[in-house]
């Protein structure tokens, strides 16, 4: 349910504001979560599941790094925000964040914004995340899990070394919440049915057999993953108005073959 007060909250600040990193959690081999509190102790404005903040770091010479966007990965609360960052080996800010930023450091962030949010609907909700693209799916799942909506939560990763938020998502399970974890490259000791639910990539056949045709679909992940999911949905004759996605990388059109 969209609450316009959350978009136009009075607490929202303009530009960048100093935040304290009060905790970091390594979610898997490449993803670190940063828990952020306002330095001035003020309560945080509510955000809408799926929204992001822009982050930059102050350098020692008082200049700033280039900014990057990170989706909020924990449901909205007044005390803290959480972002979860995938370390890109050749990346500029993600590497710096994951390698150098520790509890007690400061980051500068903007207030949350973004239009990749749940539309008002009672239809079954299908959330499909590939790799770090799981972050908006997670907050959307938190948002919808206490409603009567049926939720299909699909998470595709190579194997357990990239399996972030495992315990957290297990806690979301209830009668309305169905989860399917895909491992594309399971390790020898990882067992189908125990460690993961489906082996391989998300295929059109799997989507036809397992997902509702009358659902609202939201997805995010690496470009090849997004292209596959998008074109599978089109092949399934899902109306474009029910297909929603967020790109983490600029300048790519996934709707083209
Ligand atoms: C709305 C939105 C939400 C987002 N949410 C998240 C999130 O929740 N979590 C998250 O981790 N990311 C998220 N991102 C992506 C994030 O903003 C950054 O783009 C990402 O962290 C990479 O930034 P970077 O500065 O480390 O990499 P950049 O330096 O910007 O590089 C981008 C990519 O190019 C590659 N690259 C860089 N240099 C080279 C080179 N010389 N040769 C070859 N390849 C190279 C890097 O490996 C990287 O994959 C989001 C993006 C958007 C737009």
Automatic annotation (TrEMBL):
Checking InterPro entries in the record gives: Cbr1-like_FAD-bd_dom, FAD-bd_FR_type, FNR_nucleotide-bd, OxRdtase_FAD/NAD-bd, Riboflavin_synthase-like_b-brl
Protein's GO biological process:
cellular response to nitrosative stress; nitric oxide catabolic process
Origin, by domain of life? Bacteria
Enzyme kind, highest EC tier: oxidoreductase
Keyword set includes Heme = yes
Which one of the record's GO molecular function terms can you name? nitric oxide dioxygenase NAD(P)H activity
Q: Which residues cross the membrane?
A: none
- Pfam families named among the record's database cross-references: FAD_binding_6, NAD_binding_1
Residue span, FAD-binding FR-type domain: 14-119
Q: Does the keyword Metal-binding apply?
A: yes
Signal sequence, renumbered to the chain: none
Q: Per UniProt, which keywords does this protein have? A: Dioxygenase, Heme, Iron, Metal-binding, Oxidoreductase, Oxygen transport, Transport
Enzyme Commission number:
1.14.12.17
Protein name listed in UniProt: Nitric oxide dioxygenase
Instruction: Tell me the organism.
Output: Clostridium beijerinckii
Q: What is the lineage of its organism?
A: Bacteria, Bacillati, Bacillota, Clostridia, Eubacteriales
